[in-house]
Amino acid sequence: MRTDRRPAALAGSILLWFLSGPAAGLEPAHLVAGFPRGQGVLETSGPRCLLIDLFMASTPAQRTQGLMFVESLGEFEGMYFGHGTPRELAMWMKDTVLPLDMLFIRADGTVGSIARDTEPFSTKRISSEGAVVGVLELNAGFARRWRVAPGTRFLLL
């Protein structure tokens, strides 16, 4: 007999997010004050659904700025760079204080590749290693802690 544990996993993830407080860790918040807000869910092995509070980098100016100079993010906080049309992307960490995990999201909503523990302030190009529609940036180590791997499903809410 198989039971679907996704609703319970989602409820647990929502509770974790609620207890951590949305945008609790973001310093200085004024750097991303004009960014639209959203949420996404990562469905990891377990199964476990993780609710992520997002800043949406949707304009060219916002994509250029990204998380530059932001000093902290909450555990379930990140930035999503949506691009719509699938294409190979390259990111960098210029003026980015925090080490990050970059999850490259394919058109089918799965993680294609992950750049783990990126180097702050680096101008080295970080490639998506294939066509993607977006990039999800989270605190360094997030993918390891929560078992996010290529093939993990991501859904924007």
Report on this structure.
- By secondary structure, the chain is α+β, with helices and mostly antiparallel strands.
- The chain has one domain: Jelly Rolls, CATH 2.60.120.
- The chain has helices at residues 6-20, 60-65, 142-145, and strands at 37-44, 48-57, 77-91, 100-105, 111-115, 126-139, 153-156.
- It is globular, with a radius of gyration of 15 Å.
- The model is unreliable at 13-24 (pLDDT under 50).
Number of helices: 3
Provide the CATH topology.
Jelly Rolls
Structural class: alpha+beta
SSE order, one letter for each helix or strand: HEEHEEEEHE
Feature tags:
3 helices; globular; 157 residues; alpha+beta; Jelly Rolls; 16% helix; 7 strands
Describe this structure in a few short sentences.
The chain is α+β, with helices and mostly antiparallel strands and 157 residues long. The protein is built from three helices and seven strands. It has a seven-stranded mixed sheet with strand order 5-4-6-3-2-1-7.
Topology:
Layout: H1 6-20, E1 37-44, E2 48-57, H2 60-65, E3 77-91, E4 100-105, E5 111-115, E6 126-139, H3 142-145, E7 153-156
Parallel strand pairs: 2-3
Antiparallel strand pairs: 1-2, 1-7, 3-6, 4-5, 4-6
